[in-house]
Amino acid sequence: MILSFKHLTVASVVAAIAGVAVMVLRISNTVDFGEALQLITSGAEWESMYAVWKVINGQTLYTDRLQVPYNAVVYNWLFYQSYAAFTGSILHFLSLGDEWLPTVARHFTLFGVAAALVGAYTAFLQQFETKDRWTRAFCLAVAAYVATGPLIGWWAFTIRADVWALALEIIAVAWFLKNYPSRRIKAALLLAVFCYLAWSFKQINVGTVGGVGLFLLVRRDWKALAVLAGAMIAFWGATIALGGAQYVENIVFADFTIIFSVDHGLYTLGNLFTKTLPGLVMLGALIGAFVVSPGSRRLLLADDAVGLAVCGMFVASLIAVPASFQTGAADNYYFTLSFFVALAAVAGIAALGQADAAAARPVRAASATGWGAFVGVIGLVLVGYAGVTDVRSQHVGLMANKRCLDSLPKPFFVNYSYYGLPWMTPGNEPFVFSFQYPRERQAGKKFENGGIGGLIAAGRFKALAFVQRPPPKIYDGASLEGYEYRPDLCPEMSILLRKSD
Question: Can you tell me the distance from the alpha carbon of 397 to that of 379, in angstroms, rounded to the nearest whole number?
Fold first, then answer.
């Protein structure tokens, strides 16, 4: 059976609805407007929570992670400032305590999701001459897949820089395609502004500016390329000059211990292929048409959006694939690549449909099959066979332990950083240390006062709390002989009190 564009649209819309349903289910299980839920929706989210709290409370943001209390702030300035402005305003307006920071801040990420969806929809719709309801529905479905699909997953409702950085890169591409090539300088300048803002959220998000730069190089558009390069150098240079030495040291990960793992990288790549199935199938079908049809090949090579997307995929892959092999990486490293794959697919389908109907039909058929298979993948999550849709149980455990910790003499140390957040253990020193702290200690990094272990050995803490039973005998290189284990104090934790008290 030869499938029409309407069939392709229906398949994509069904898949998009399923993807949105998963996102809505996850958010509904993570928000309670009657209670400030304490939980994490992405790895080491507490680092961002604490950094946003510091900005709201007028504290120095970029500090040396090797100094007490060993806090690491590693993302770029606009991420923290924007989240703090939004969250602080809402907390103040509604007279809410700090414990509501996670809930409020995550909603700002949802605005980023909406911005990414609108930007992607705009970029995709520009590729079609005929903008009827079927075209609009298809573009909206693919945009929803990019902005809310399984690759985004929990990142749609977490306190991280990735979604807003992606949204700004997508908006940059949408504006560029709208103005290029008729207004080349305007296109380059708008792209530079939005790509700078994306970089200002997360410094690794330079795939779009690099991809467009490569596209202009291939097109030999020297003037637009010079404007783009000049603007980016000016923006980056001014920021680095004004940011100060500690800011620069943090965002370039100077002397930061990064561990790479082949197993982790392959796992992340596997997630990419599973969670971007429709885009990859559409792209694969277009490559098939490109190979077997000289007419299709000429058409695709001449299309600006296809060319830009291919250049974007190339540069984004050069950045994302190696970076995804470090142990702190996850699906978020592939957000920009996923958008360029979708853009190449949509632009290619639009170009073939408008000029080569014979080549377009098998591409549409294969693409519809990919969307159908994707519905099955998402269905496994909806029925609970795969993935996670509810993390509320974290709140129950965290709050039970918090009630116990509130009774301990201060200062005390807890070996799970979430408890270091100011609203979890008020009045205690906030040891919200980096998720890389244990690896850096093992690598021999010199932390002030010998790190946590050195502080324990010096008797800095009146109590120690560990989230496992029984407690270790040695922690971070320090013996715990100076502390008495009190199994009666907390049922789910190991509490040790300093013997000299």
Answer: 29
